[in-house]
Amino acid sequence: MTTDRTDLTWPALLAHWTAFAQASLALPKTAEGDRWRAAVPAIIGLQAVTFALADLDRLRKDGGGGGGGGEGGERALAIDRAEMLIRKHSGQLHELWAGEPLHPELVKMIDDARTALAAAAEGGLEWRITGARLVAEHPADLLAAVLASGFAGDLLLPAPGFVLMRGSPAAFCRGPAGSAPAPEVIDLVSRFLGEAAGEPSRAAGPRQVYRQFDFAKGGPVRDVVMPMNATLPAGQPLLVWAMQRGEMMPVPLPPRRTGEVGDLPVVFEGQ
What pLDDT sits at residue 13? Predict the structure, then answer.
């Protein structure tokens, strides 16, 4: 009853929905068939919302993800509308299957829509280390330039003075309501990170890097990467919020001594 949305365009998806609605007319005239026919509008509605949320980055960028208006305001309205529609359509399906477990495909469809909603609202651009390692300086000059650009979003940066390993996230940046930062802000962050970091790519949300220690072995043993909203693991966080909602946050100065750190494995968990 569902379709893979990978690489689909709106016309292709509309054609699929039309065929799906027509096929539903051939369902048997039974209680179960009637229920599935009644579920067609909610099914199509959920798929439409999921697809549209994944396409939100095509909204016009009047504000460029910088100030609080423009794209950020338009995007926030779209996300609020999507949340309302997901609640409406999932409620309709639960009413049709009242007292019974939902079909697994319907459960997956609702989960996909909620995941797309979270990614649209909380996602942003993530930089990762592509060089051997990175030791970042204090970002005072970067933050002054970002603030002067009118940026009104969130910026996660390396804790000054600590070593980040190859493959590790190095920074995360998003405009209001998960919109893309302005090109000027992207360029400022990229220049701050330097050649050690690659080009940023879209991520579903911010991730933290935790350095874990085994003192029986004499020091750090690995870096664990987890979503910021996951259960807090043991370890020392290596990224800090430098800006939140357009306001500068206090960033500690580099420690006087961090000790020598050899190459550590970077492990991704809870992705």
Answer: 57
Report the C-alpha gap between 251 and 162 in whole angstroms: 13
Nearest Cα residue to 86 out of 46, 56, 118, 115: 46
Nearest to 242 by CA among 191, 268, 206, 195: 206
How far is it, in rounded angstroms, from Cα 47 to Cα 110? 9
Closest CA to 82 of 55, 105, 107: 55
- Side by side, the strands of the sheet bearing 207-214 are 236-237, 207-214, 219-227, 266-268
Collapsing DSSP states into helix, strand and coil, what is residue 26? coil
Token pair in block for residue 256:
């006087």
Global pTM reads: 0.77
224: confidence class by pLDDT, cuts 50, 70, 90: very high
Pairwise CA distance, residues 238 & 157, whole Å: 9
Rounded to whole angstroms, the Cα distance separating 183 from 211 reads: 31
Distance CA 114, CA 62 (A): 27
Among the listed residues 112, 52, 44, the one whose alpha carbon sits nearest the alpha carbon of residue 82 = 52
Single out the residue of 7, 44, 10, 52 nearest to residue 24, CA to CA.
Answer: 44
Hey, what are 136's tokens?
A: 């970042």
